[in-house]
Amino acid sequence: MTNTSSKSLRQGSVSRVQMSKQHFKVCFCFKRMFRLKVAEPPHEICTIFDAYSQNGNMSMDDLYTFLVQFQGEMGGDATKKQVQAIFDSLKHLTIFQRKGLHIEAFFRYLLGNLNGPLAQDQVHQNMNSPLAHYFLYTGHNSYLTGNQLSSESSTSPIIEALKKGVRVIELDLWPSSKENDVLVRHGGTLTSSVKLKACLNAIKEYAFYASEYPVVITFEDHITTNLQAKVAEMVNDIFGEMLYRPDSEHMEIFCSPELLKGKILISTKPPETPDFQGKRPEERTQNLHDYKQDDLDDEGEEDDAIGLGYRDLIAIHAGKPKGKIENWLIHHGQARRVSLSEQELEEIATKHGSDIVRFTQTNLVRIYPKGMRVDSSNYDPMTGWMHGAQMVAFNMQGHDHFLNIMQGMFRANGGCGYVKKPDILLNVDKGFDPRGTRLVQKTLQVLVYMGEGWQSDFGRTHFDLYSPPDFYVKVGIHGVPADRATKETRTIEDEWLPVWNELFSFPLTVPELALLHIKVGERDFSGKPDFGGQTCLPVSELKEGIRAVRLYDRKGEIYNSVRLLLQFQFVNNTNA
Predict the structure, then answer these.
(1) Which of 17, 46, 9 is nearest to 495 (CA)?
(2) Catalytic residue list contains 222
(3) Pairing label, strands 337-341, 558-572
(4) Which member of 85, 156, 342, 547 lies 3.0 to 4.6 Å from 117 by CB, making a disulfide possible if both were Cys?
(5) Beta-bridge partners for 30
(6) Is the dihedral angle over the CA atoms 275, 280, 283, 285 positive or is it negative?
(7) How confident is the model over 288-306, as pLDDT tens digits?
(8) Burial class, 189, CB count within 10 angstroms (exposed 0-12 / middle 13-18 / buried 19+)
(9) pLDDT digits (tens, 9 = 90+) for 344-372
(10) How large is the average pLDDT for residues 519-528?
(11) pLDDT category, 34, cuts 50, 70, 90?
(12) What are 475's strand-pairing partners?
């Protein structure tokens, strides 16, 4: 960035605004008038505009220079196309002039959707590494519509999850009352059930709605061998060529997301079978044929034979860890999935943090919520991520803080549901201690300029019946323990268009895992603050410069108009 950029990160003066009059009704007998504001660019933005324009006019060449020198764009043909797109987007505005942009048009560009905070809105990471090298957007009890004890089971939450880019769907399989069909439900609770066939059809229809990368279905299997055969037939019939079948049960390394595009993978604990292991599916099928030709009389053996069809579906073998921790944390030659509760992870990580990281370089680890979370709340996902766990399973039914953090992580890499793990978690020679002490690698500076859009997305009396709102912003880092911090602006009273001009600095020891969480609150001096929007962004994909950061509601749905104008800058630590 230029010197102008450095200066712009300092606290500036209050923005100028134009006034227009509107009325608020108070009681039934009179009207109280408030002055609603139409934003004008803050003084700092005007200063930057002056530095990159000539006589109050910013030409295409001037805008190109601004994008490269101030905003940190790469330059070349891509940036020239960006300049053209910006000019085209402003043609409908009366403030646009053919020769260039006036300050008002420049300001609208800065606050517009073409000036977002993330580096790319498409897949840009290397997708050719083994599956174990990625974090996967993972759901827990994906079929539940609400709490874990008494809510309805349905295909609706499965569909909603897939539409949002979730790549791992969990289904609990139970026999029907007559034991002639397979149902999906949360066993041992009052939750209702939904037929497995309906769930599989929903997955088939929406699996690649938001992403072309593979969907993993994890079965928690509570069914008999005969019903396993029924599931095998059902899965084959519904998914057909979409279903991925590995060449061998004993894979030493998983395939890549790129190779598995458009595929459905089944992951569950394999049933016990005769010793047909290590052979290709067609060989196992021939063995099974020969096995059946012997006119098996033993019912147990026959059940085992039937179970082979179910076993052949399994792309990712799963199982609970057995024996001493030191034993199952060693890679035994076959890549597999291990499931741990959030509590088990915490306990094991206290002494074996680096071992877990090493294990996840070739194997998959799934973390799931503890049983006490009957309200479908969630835990801190960073504990799993910083230990390399790929499948941090979340209840998608709630709207808690940690779900916002989860959504922030998977806004990375174009929102495809797969995020490449940082090199520190994949370095075989140099082990990573998640709780170790490290030097600061870089510092993220965040300048909070102003916000707008609440007038459009909220009713005029939503926050206060008798006066405009009193907004403040919380800005924080969620990452490894050493990097966590939260800062808060002052409260701007009686303002629909608050201007803060406050600068915050966040030293980062592991910037690769850091997430920037932003939340707007409306101060209620007589009670709990009102919610004014939030977002969470992966620090590794933030673009430097002045950016329009759109906010989301509690459910994770983006607002049409509410946004903040922020500036980001990274300062590298020369001693790191």
Answers:
(1) 17
(2) no
(3) unpaired
(4) 547
(5) 26
(6) positive
(7) 444 334 443 444 455 555 5
(8) middle
(9) 999 999 989 999 999 999 999 999 999 89
(10) 88
(11) very low
(12) 487, 518
| First-to-final CA distance of the chain | 21
Count Cα neighbours of 561 within 13 Å in the Cβ-side half-sphere. 10
Q: Which amino acid is at 270?
A: P
Average pLDDT of the segment spanning 249-257:
86
Residues shown for the chain: 576
Cα 188 to Cα 144, 163, 191, 327, 547, distances in angstroms:
14, 29, 9, 32, 49
Radius of gyration of the chain (CA): 27
**What separation in angstroms does the CA of 158 have from each of 68, 215, 422?**
43, 12, 29
**The dihedral formed by the CA atoms of 292, 294, 297 and 299, expressed in degrees to the nearest 10:** -30
Q: Of all helices (H) and strands (E), which one includes residue 190?
A: none
pLDDT at residue 290, rounded to an integer:
45
In 3-state terms, the chain is what percent helix, strand and coil (to 5)? 30, 30, 45
Of the residues 102, 124, 133, 140, only one is catalytic, namely 140
Dihedrals φ, ψ of 344, to 5°? Answer: -60, -40
Task: Grade residue 28 by pLDDT with cuts at 50, 70 and 90.
Answer: very low
Cα dihedral 340→411→141→154 (10° resolution): -170
Which has the closest alpha carbon to 364: 429, 324, 418, 439? 418
**pLDDT for residue 231 is more than 80:** yes
With CA atoms as reference, report the closest residue to 392 among 356, 361, 368. 368
- pLDDT value at residue 30: 40
> What's the token pair of residue 170?
């969990």
Neighbours of 470 (CB within 10 A): 20
Instruction: Decide if 340 contacts 367 (C-beta within 8 A).
Output: yes
CB proximity list for 345: less than 8 A, separation 6 or greater: 356, 367, 383, 384, 387, 389
92 carries an active-site annotation: no
Q: What H or E segment, with its residue span, contains residue 563?
A: strand 558-572
Can you tell me the mean pLDDT for 531-545? 97
DSSP class per residue in 470-505: -EEEEEEEESSGGG-EEEEPPPB-S-SS-EEEEEEE
Q: How far is CA 168 from CA 162, 203, 478, in A?
A: 9, 11, 23
Share of the chain above pLDDT 90, in %: 71
